[in-house]
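User: Predict Ribosomal RNA large subunit methyltransferase H's structure from this.
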Amino acid sequence: MTIKLIAIGKTDNNELQALINNYTKRLGFYIKFSFEIIPDLKKVKNLSEEQQKQKEGELILSKTSNSDSLILLDENGKQFNSVEFSTYLQKHMNSGIKQLVFVIGGPYGFSEDVYRRANGKISLSKMTFSHQMVRLFFIEQLYRGFTILKNEPYHHR
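Assistant:
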């Protein structure tokens, strides 16, 4: 299985990007992982929130295939602790799917088309985080999940 993370817009904070790169590299020791950025939409001032979600949704769906398991990072999704999340990852690996795709949406969330296509939703917290911080938190949790599955000490340092 491979894991892909899709996010809208680049990370413009160099310190955050360095940490994201660090955990992405660490994650590569456990699983094939890719992080794909969809560039911010241009001329959004002329678009309603709904139109912006629709355009972003089309771009998100163009980056996935029908055989992918698509999981949205959404405030209304299921919450896990780190051990539960590692079990969630293991269940997906055992299911035989080829690619597990997680998506961080744009500032207004996801279009209805993306919600209909999704196989699930997870939430990192009831709190609101910047989209750039969510990238780091999620990639770190993926890494933590794999260290838990391998019984490595990272989780309890």
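The beta strands are 2-8, 32-38, 69-79, 99-104, 120-123.
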